[in-house]
Each structure stands twice: as structure tokens, then as C-alpha cells.
Write a structure and sequence with these properties.
Bound molecules: zinc ion
Radius of gyration: 23 Å
Number of strands: 10
Shape: globular
Number of helices: 9
Structural class: alpha+beta
Order of helices and strands: HEEEHHHEEEHEEEEHHHH
Distance between the termini: 64 Å
Strand order of the largest sheet: 6-5-4-7-8
């Protein structure tokens, strides 16, 4: 009998970075890594974020630079999502490693315990990483075969204790109005895009913006998707009859939701509300990069974060909330 190949995630190739490596490498090496991710074109040599000049005075004691042209003082994280960081480079890198290692996502509470940093710090850092992951999706257009599906999150109504007091929670008047729908579009062999809408059918305009006209769509029997037939070659599957019906199949879109549901149930317990889109985007990123080594994933996230501008949502979040 032919021996089955070892699963990629179990192989040594999938493990190229660890907390041990991060802390053994030390702060100087972590700093060098941030420099080469921030300024890949100059192999880590500083480029002024204000005027683009490559000539700078070094202020090594403070790990800062001063631009020779415009005199602006800056650091490797100035103007990026890590601007005015308080954590060391090793701690940020370690947080990224913990984050990419969590297949079901990682809670801020866990990061705060593992790294011995404040919960508030860990919470904002995790959200900044999610934002950086999502920034890589701008302008992506899906082609070929795209599976589309939606699932509802949040707005849970607790049933009354006594059966006589219980109401039909399926009816609109008995719901909280907080329920939102995540819609995923997943190109076979390609990228995964997610959106948050009120009702599944509200996503049709988003399909128009992100899916090419020659694409074949696969969707389930939900009537909200009927509108897709007008523009795209659309295949439908009736799940009450079969999971794959004459080639129509949305299994990849559903595997996305099984991951997002595991993140909800197993890690965060509550991913609804205004940041649902961020968790949905994180799940897309994890699907798209799941076959890379954790070191490659960490470098992708760190690189994306250093290419992301200061976050409008998360800069000074707790100061504003206070
Ligand atoms: Zn300058």
C-alpha cells in the first residue's frame, strides 16, 4: 500500500519560526528584520517617509533617523500601523507569531498572558494585525469559478426559561436587529473575499464590484442569489437534495464558514458588532495562506503591517474610549 504523504502542517517545512527563535534572535536582529521589511527596495536602508530622500543621519541610541533633506526625524515604524509603538520589536514579532499560529484565531487575552503585556495593548495590536491583513485585498478581482455563500452572526436572543414564555425567534419582531450577514466570495484556486451586510441579498452589488463578468458563480438555493443569473453564468445547488449537484458546489465557501464559526465558538465567543468585518477578513486571510510555513505567514503579516498607514480605527483607541 502506498504510504500517504505527511500533511503539510505536520511537516518541519511548516514550522520555520517560533517564539524560541524570536527571543533567541534578540532585539537587534528583530530591529534589522523590521528595517528590511519596511524598506525592501533599499535592503533596509532608511527612506524618509515625508520626502522620500534616502540620505539620513543615524541616531543609533534612539533607533531613529534624521532626513538630510527635510530634517524630519523618523523611525522604522513612523507612519505605519505600528507608529508610536510601546512594545519592543521582539514582542511585536512574537505577537505576530502567536497570531499566525492560531488556526482558529487568537484571543487578545491569550496574547496578553503569553507575552505579559496589558490586555488593552494586546487587543489593539491584534486588531492592527487584522487591519494589515485586510489591506492586502484592495483592488482584488475574482475570476474563473467563484463560490459565494452567506452566514449570519451575532444578535443572539436567549430563549426564555419557561417554555410558555418563549417566542418564535425566527420572526423579525422577536430579534435584536444586531444580526449581520457575512458573505464570502471564494475563487477556486484563488483568493477569498468577505463582506458584512444586513441580508445576504445585499451583497449582490459587491459581487458586481469584485467579480469579473466572465466568471462562473456557484451559489446555494437561497432566493437572494436569484439576481445573480442576470449578469453571470450561475450554478445553483439545493442543499436539501445534495451537497454537490451536477457540478454545482459551494463546499469551499462553506469551509470558510466552518473556520469563522470555529473562531467565534472556540476563541472569541463573540465576533459580532462593528468589528465583524475584521474577523471575517482574518478568516479569509487564513484560508488563502494556510499552506505557507508559519515563518512565511509571519513575514507577510509584518510586511503588510509596515506597508499599512497609521490606523484610523486603532491609533489611540483606549485614549479615545476613556
Ligand atoms: Zn525627508
Amino acid at each position: 500500500m502506498k504510504r500517504k504523504g505527511q500533511h503539510f502542517l505536520l511537516s518541519a517545512k511548516a514550522r520555520t519560526i517560533s517564539l524560541k527563535k524570536v527571543y533567541t534572535m534578540g532585539e537587534d536582529a528583530a530591529y534589522e528584520m523590521f528595517r528590511s521589511l519596511r524598506w525592501p527596495e533599499t535592503e533596509g536602508e532608511p527612506v524618509c517617509p515625508r520626502c522620500g530622500c534616502c540620505d539620513a543621519y543615524d541616531i543609533p541610541t534612539r533607533r531613529k533617523f534624521q532626513c538630510k533633506a527635510c530634517k524630519h526625524q523618523y523611525s522604522v515604524t513612523s507612519g505605519t500601523i505600528f507608529a508610536s509603538r510601546k512594545l519592543s520589536f521582539t514582542d511585536i514579532l512574537a505577537a505576530i507569531v502567536l497570531f499566525v499560529n492560531g488556526a482558529k484565531g487568537v484571543s487578545a487575552l491569550q496574547v496578553s498572558r503569553d507575552l505579559d503585556v496589558q490586555y488593552k495593548t494586546a487587543y489593539v495590536l491584534c486588531h492592527k494585525l487584522r487591519e494589515a491583513m485586510g489591506n492586502g485585498n484592495a483592488g482584488i478581482r475574482l475570476e474563473g469559478i467563484v463560490e459565494i455563500d452567506g452566514a449570519y452572526f451575532g444578535g443572539h436572543v436567549r430563549p426564555e426559561n419557561h417554555k410558555a414564555d418563549r417566542r418564535d425567534r425566527r420572526l423579525a419582531e422577536n430579534q435584536t436587529g444586531k444580526r449581520q450577514c457575512v458573505v464570502v466570495m471564494r475563487q477556486r484556486g484563488g483568493r477569498t473575499l468577505s463582506f458584512v451586510v444586513r441580508h445576504e441579498s445585499d451583497a449582490v452589488p459587491m459581487v458586481r464590484d469584485h467579480v469579473g463578468t466572465l466568471t462562473t458563480l456557484h451559489a446555494d438555493e437561497a432566493t437572494g442569489w436569484d439576481a445573480l443569473h442576470a449578469r453571470w453564468d450561475t450554478w445553483r445547488i439545493n442543499h436539501s437534495v445534495a451537497f454537490s449537484d451536477e457540478g454545482a458546489c459551494t463546499n469551499q465557501a462553506e469551509s470558510y464558514f466552518s473556520r469563522l464559526r470555529r473562531m467565534e465558538v472556540g476563541t472569541h465567543h463573540h465576533i459580532a458588532g462593528p468589528y465583524l468585518y475584521a474577523y471575517a477578513g482574518e478568516a479569509s486571510w487564513r484560508e488563502d495562506h494556510r499552506r505557507r510555513s508559519n515563518g512565511a505567514q509571519a513575514m507577510l503579516v509584518a510586511g503588510a503591517a509596515l506597508k499599512s498607514r497609521q490606523s484610523r480605527n486603532w491609533t489611540g483607541y483606549w485614549q479615545r474610549a476613556a
